[in-house]
Amino acid sequence: MSRKYRQTGYMDSDREKRPKLPPRKKGVGGRVETKFHLVTRCNNCAAEIQVMDQIQVTDQCSHCNTDLHTCRNCLNFDPSALNECVKPVAVRVVNKSKNNLCPLFEAKVLIEKQGSGAAPKVVDSNRQAFLDLFKK
User: Do 14 and 1 contact (CB within 8 A), yes or no?
Assistant: First the structure.
């Protein structure tokens, strides 16, 4: 329980019983260091894509074998924009999940914390436990 002004009172014994957290590692200047990295991910399965140069029209995801040169993997893709593209497009692409020859394609690059990925087994077991609640 936290009180606004930390006056002494009848609940002070609770404050002493709480375990203290171990100190966090500090970097230069006394700040906690957080490392980030740039990553490109598949829009279908979220697997990391190793992009050496650019995504070619024929490239596919190594995990789920879906096309990578698609509108959904593009930096300019925005579902709320006209034709679902931030930039003006001459010809509308109907299927956003299939390969296209759009000259405005730029691979979507995300900034992520290093080591921020959760273990998939934990997520799957939690999801399975949730789905088991509604089975008949």
Answer: yes
Q: DSSP states of 68-114 as a string?
A: SSSGGGBTTB-TTSGGGBSS--SS--S-TTS----TT--B--EEEET
pLDDT for res 121: 46
What single-letter DSSP state applies at residue 5? S
DSSP 8-65: --TTHHHHHHSPPPPPPP--GGGPPP--EEEEEE-TTT-PEE--SS---TT-B-TTT-
State how far the Cα of 67 lies from the Cα of 26, in Å rounded to an integer: 43
SS3 assignment, position 123: helix
Which pTM was predicted?
A: 0.56
Write down the pLDDT at residue 42. Answer: 87
As a residue count, the chain comes to: 136
Long-range contacts of 127-133 (CB under 8 A, 24+ apart): none
One-letter amino acid identity for 116? S
